[in-house]
Specification:
The protein has 359 residues and is of the alpha/beta class. The protein has two domains: 1-114 and 296-359, P-loop containing nucleotide triphosphate hydrolases (Rossmann fold, 3-Layer(aba) Sandwich), CATH 3.40.50.300; 123-294, Up-down Bundle (Glutathione S-transferase Yfyf (Class Pi), Chain A, domain 2). The chain has twelve helices and 14 strands. The strands form three sheets. The chain has a six-stranded mixed sheet, sandwiched between helices. Strands 2-1-4-5-6 form a five-stranded antiparallel sheet. Strands 8-9-10 form a three-stranded antiparallel sheet. Strand 4 (67-75) and strand 5 form a beta hairpin. The longest helix has 39 residues, at 173-211. The structure holds adenosine-5'-triphosphate (ATP) and magnesium ion. The site of magnesium ion has 4 residues, from helix 1. It is found in: Cytoplasm. This is DNA replication and repair protein RecF. The RecF protein is involved in DNA metabolism; it is required for DNA replication and normal SOS inducibility. RecF binds preferentially to single-stranded, linear DNA. It also seems to bind ATP. Residues 3-356 form the RecF/RecN/SMC N-terminal domain.
């Protein structure tokens, strides 16, 4: 489901841009500070309702302007063009349009525009805390399990409510009624996550073997509490500890995807280039799995493609992406770094001082 056209207005240093896109590779070439990452950031905003660089809307709206717009047209599976758009104002308000209808939700945008971002700071998936890996799992569950989004939001609300109740409760009995629903939701969410990891694992291991043949990768899912005890019992058994902490310690909010190579945590073994390749392998695996399960293609945004990768590894990644048949946006400082990836379907865009011209 590629984007066929992208319109960006008043976004960082991009005053106005309107480009027709390739359904294959789109290269963004330009010097430092020209606006390459900003184009990727704008597409990301269209699919996620937020930037991957800044949580403050004021930072992404062009200086001296009050609002930004990102519009796109994408081909849906039955080959109809569907317009999507997002407008953000300096006061923080957001307007989402899908198919000409305003007042749509950001989660609906995410549903129609599955995106995978690979950027130089993306190592945090492997080296930082579990938050990023939970987000990785939840991206997949969100796109493959229709009930997940509502269940997750409900669970978050119940968790908040429980934490408030914990403060004043005299005995566990005061919580047990609420915990029944919380436990059921937590078990469901955990079941979906485990199922997703089980499925994507095989695809990820295959791609990792191709990218990093010298390593044997192991992915294991940790659900956030001991695997033999029902969540209901965890909530009850840990009541005093939770009350002392002021929040519910164990649960789906502690889930993780544990990644090891040759039995050792990845960050202790892999070089920076190898870490980047592993992140790429995991992200491409998610995209491939999405296509296998739903028939949907995701769009890959690859910022600073050449950084950390030698030419042989770049080639491996490029050919793997080509095989997926997905739309890919690649930013690079020089055209020579992406020369091998060009074909008759690809498009090259030159970026200079926030102006994007097809080359
Ligand atoms: N709110 C804003 N309004 C106007 N310009 C901005 C705003 N925020 C950032 N900029 C400028 O926009 C440009 C954004 O550059 P961007 O990060 O897209 O560059 P790039 O081409 O990816 O560079 P690099 O190769 O260094 O990664 C920078 O020159 C930055 O100073
Ligand atoms: Mg950049």
């Amino acid at each position: 489901m590629p984007l066929t056209r992208l319109i960006v207005q008043q976004f960082r240093n991009i005053k106005a841009c309107d480009i027709e896109l390739s359904s294959g590779f789109n290269f963004l070439i330009g010097p430092n500070g020209s606006g390459k990452t900003s184009v990727l950031e704008a597409i990301y905003l269209l699919g996620h309702g937020r930037s991957f660089k800044s949580s403050l809307t004021g930072r992404i709206i062009q200086n001296e302007c009050n609002e930004l717009f990102v519009h796109g047209r994408f081909l849906n599976p039955d080959q109809f063009e569907l317009p999507v758009g997002i407008n953000k104002q300096r006061d923080g308000s957001t307007e989402v349009k899908i198919g000409g209808q305003s007042g749509q939700k950001i989660s609906q945008l995410a549903q129609v525009l599955p995106l995978q971002l690979i950027h130089p700071e993306g190592f945090d998936l492997l080296t930082d805390g579990p938050k990023h890996r939970r987000a990785f799992i939840d991206w997949g569950v969100f796109h493959t399990e229709p009930q997940f989004y509502d269940a997750w939001n409900r669970l978050k609300r119940l968790n908040k409510q429980r934490n408030a109740l914990l403060k004043n409760a005299h005995s566990y009995r005061e919580l047990s009624y609420w915990d029944r629903e919380l436990a059921e939701l937590a078990e469901n969410i955990s079941h979906w996550r485990a199922h997703y990891v089980e499925q994507v694992k095989g695809v990820a291991e295959d791609i990792c073997r191709h990218f990093l043949p010298e390593f044997d990768i192991q992915l294991t899912y940790y659900r956030g509490w001991d695997k033999t005890t029902p969540y209901r019992d965890i909530l009850e058994n840990n009541f005093e500890r939770d009350q002392h902490l002021g929040y519910t310690f164990s649960g789906p909010n502690k889930a993780d995807l544990r990644i090891k190579v040759n039995g050792t945590p990845v960050e202790d073994v892999l070089s920076r280039g190898q870490l980047k390749l592993m992140v790429c392998a995991l992200r491409v695996a998610q995209g491939q799995h999405l296509t296998q399960v739903t028939g949907k293609q995701c769009i890959y945004l690859i910022d600073d493609f050449a950084s950390e990768l030698d030419s042989q590894r770049r080639e491996r990644l490029a050919s793997c992406l080509k095989q997926t048949g997905a739309q890919v946006f690649v930013s690079s400082i020089t055209a020579s770094q992406v020369a091998d990836m060009q074909d008759k379907n690809s498009r090259m865009f030159h970026v200079e001082h926030g102006k994007i011209e097809q080359g």
